[in-house]
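S.,

Sequence below, as promised.
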Amino acid sequence: MSKPKCSIIVDGELPPGLLANTVGVIAMALGKLAPEAMGCDGIDQDGRRHHGLAWMGVTVLRGSQEIVSEIFAQVAEGDTDLLVVDCPVVAQATRDYEEYLEMLSRQGGQERRLSGIGLYGNTKKMAKFTGNLPLLR
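The prediction came back faster than expected:
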């Protein structure tokens, strides 16, 4: 089996703060759901511990809200080759997690808008979804 890959696709039209937040919350969720992707802690020459980071590169790609939603819809929920983490727009509309869950429960289909998604897993399968997307710069 080949090494897994990790990519985060974001709506490139987001303002810088929301864009950074989208990448951050997706990365945290991926780290929780795929702990095998996390490297071990390191110690610098001063003896200070540095907590483990992802041992692989995490590619951050630029898409549009439509592209992000399209990829999310195409990846099957039960797909065992790809782990998908999404960041709905409503997650950034409140600072209260319970309120977010309530807002989310009222959305679906065309009403659901995503700021970004993270994919982790099979490299070849992921390339089908992300192969033509540019890096976020």
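The longest helix spans residues 16-33.

Coffee later?
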